[in-house]
Amino acid sequence: MVQITRSPDCANSPKNQRVEDIALALLGVGDLPDTALSEGAVWDRAGGSISGRTAIQATRATLPACQDIRVDQVVSHGKAGTASGVVVRAGEGTRLFCHIIRFTSATAQQVAQIVSFEHAGGKTGIRHDR
Fold first, then answer.
1. 5-53 pLDDT, tens digit each
2. CB distance 1 to 28 below 8 Å
3. 74: pLDDT confidence band, cut at 50, 70 and 90?
4. Terminus-to-terminus CA distance in the chain, angstroms?
């Protein structure tokens, strides 16, 4: 089971909670219903761009399992939101992550674009011995 640690400031609004849920799903934790993605959604990430709801879901299904996730910050405003923190996967070590999520409207019902970054982190406060 994945250990998830959240900053107490993250889920302080329904839209922030939605951004966090999507970010966790992009890390392989939780569900991302097809209806949450517009048909033409695009996911820009290391290795290239993935276009379309079906391709994004297929990519999510192949993600390596996470051991620990620490969500440090979730922010939403208008048609966009970001979630960032630290993720640990077996064999990959500790990495910083950031997901920038752009919705089709300010209601945040469907994702139009995701831009994801990961970077090998320095001191992160997550143990590697689990």
1. 877 766 678 899 999 999 999 999 999 999 999 999 999 998 899 999 9
2. no
3. very high
4. 11
Give the alpha-carbon dihedral of 89, 112, 117, 72, to 10 degrees: -70
DSSP assignments along 10-22, one per residue: TTSSHHHHHHHHH
Q: Residue 130: what pLDDT? A: 42
Which class would CATH give 3-120? alpha beta
Alpha helices in the chain (DSSP H): 14-26, 53-60
State both tokens at 95: 């990495």
Residue 32 in contact with residue 96, Cβ under 8 Å?
no
64 by Cβ neighbours in 10 Å (0-12 / 13-18 / 19+) ranks as exposed
The three-state secondary structure class of 71 is strand
